[in-house]
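In the current project phase, work has continued on tokenised descriptions of protein folds. One protein thus recorded appears below exactly as we store it.

——
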Amino acid sequence: MLWLPVLLTLAAQDPRNITAGSLIPDEGYSDQPYIVKADDGAWVVVITTGPGREGAGGQHVVTRRSLDRGKTWSQPVDVEPSDGPEASYAVMLKVPSGRLYVFYNHNTDNVRQVIADKPAFKDGFCRRVDSLGHFVFKYSDDHGRSWSARRYDIPMRDFEIDRRNPYQGKLKFFWNVGRAFIHRNAGYVPLHKVGGFGEGFFTSSEGALLRSLNILTERDPDKIAWQTLPEGETGLRTPPGGGPVAEEQSFTPLSDGSLFVVYRTIDGHSVYSYSRDDGRTWDAPRYMTFADGRLMKHPRAANFVWRCNNGNYLYWFHNHGGRFIREHPRRRSIAYEDRNPVWLSGGVEADSPAGKIIRWSEPEIALYDDDPFIRMSYPDLVEEDGRYYLTETQKDLARTHEIARPLLEGLWNPGRGATREGLVLEAAAPFTSPPALPPLPVFVKRGTGGDYGHEDLRAGVSFDLIVQGVAAEPGRILLSNRTPEGRGFVLHTVPGGALELIVNDGRTENRWSSDPGTLRPGSRQHITAIVDGGPKIIRFIVDGRVQDGGEARQFGWGRFSPALRDVEGSRELKVGPGVDHVRIYNRALRTAEAIAAFRAP
């Protein structure tokens, strides 16, 4: 048995908490903070902003510059003024000459209402008019310090979804998120076509790409030519049998010249596809999966993919959903909820008969807010000098965040072997006497401020076990330090072949269970139960797989009370039959660390 001293780090500031990031100034509303690095070294961010809420009058597009990696920003530069028609949802592209282009929606014709569905719109008209009109661009030849006075229209080919809208395509409904990109000497800009407005706002949608073969070299904006892809009458949709919403397509080129796209739906899962001919045609759409083929869960929220400088990929998503969204009677609307926390999955390329594909790792919590109703979304990724930064917005506050490099590297390569960092107890069978349990971290303590309130230490604890032949019937204890009055923790079996972790500080009790069918009697299994005091989440990782609720529940992870003070109980650790090996850590393990322990010899 190994007993290591506890290191109580007063890490009250968790870099994953979005309040630890650097603010990007705005006018009130703040959306889609996307960044390009200008040739003079500045970060140029474009934001849709305005004094009101999303879609309100005065919404317009501005840019700012930063010379210190997003810590401070210059005064805003209007791409469009706030007293003009709505200008919204901008993305940028830098071409080899250093010129910057910004592409955005513009309500050029100042349309004030459009036909919409009843009863979602009582009188049959939608008066939010920021997702229609003209798709336009301006350019900057001084690294984003100013933008061309004139805007330029981009023609869009009609699809079936346009012709079926109430105006037969003469007035188009659409918007844009994500990244414009360069691929095989052409510039590409994503576009999301909309069929109508009603419950959930957009009632149907599909993805398209605008491609220019000469934007990288042509200096005269009037001579830039555009194609609308894919070929044919329809854009990127859901798989057969899927819902009518397929939107916010995020594209990235692969090393062999293929294109990968991922996009949101109201089916409880995101969708992906590959193109092997520069976006003209696409493979049959499929729901996103992890490398082992398990479906990924995702609500109706932006989910973006980025190719990193090292040739690997990152995927931003929210890791819940499934049939609990797909089968909900109001799925168009409720699917917008629960964008907190943010999870990242790491992607690595692999070969297939058709070309390169991406295999996706088990996910890791990357960002969160203490308020579970906060919804962070519309991110961007910036790399500089080997460091990684994410942007995000809550729609009224936008920020930049540096993401810890070990977290990202673990997604791409978890390695093998159990970490020793934070290990406070390690013991193996036979347990002839109860192992002595050292003090465990304090989660919340009395503060030192003038009001003597509490201080959240954002601590954690992790239980890492190897079990053999644990019976699936309920009531069997695997680990426990509980006192007679119930203080401490217990990991025990519950109905359905699941495990449940209970934590109790004598004032509040919290519990979360693993997915049904977790236990496989007669099998050797590796189980990690993590209590993460940053986002206040309990989660299970079993045999190297992060549990997500499967078909049994929408969430595989659960929240615990921010009032939980500690998990202290008895100084003796009770270890139940079937536990071969146990490690206890005084911190929340990362996903990659749990996987590395599972892969250990």
User: Anything to note?
Assistant: The first strand starts at residue 2 and ends at 3. The CA atoms of residues 314 and 346 lie 5 Å apart. Helices lie at 160-163, 323-326, 331-334, 405-412, 591-598.
